[in-house]
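Hmm, what's this shape?
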Amino acid sequence: MSVYTLILEYDGATYMSQVEANNEKSALNIWSDELDVCAIDGFPLVDAEQVLAGLEQQAPTPVQKLTNVWNLSFAVGHDVAVLHLIKTELQLDS
C-alpha cells in the first residue's frame, strides 16, 4: 500500500488529509468514506451524501508532465470543489 495526500480546495479554503490505499481510485473512495463534511466550511450538509456518492463514479485524471499526481473537480451545490491526489510515501509512519 502507498500513502496518498489529498488536497481539497473548496470555497476559498484548503483541506488536506492522507490515506493508505493500493491506487488513486481506492484512495479517493477511502477519503470520501472517511471525510467529515462538518469540518468543511460552507459544505451543504443536506447534499453531502449525494456529493460523496457521486465521487465513486469518477476517476481521478493524471496531471500531465507530473508523476503520481491526479486531480478531479466536482459540483458541491452551486460551487465547484477541486481535489488533488498525490502518491507520497510507501506507508505511514506509526
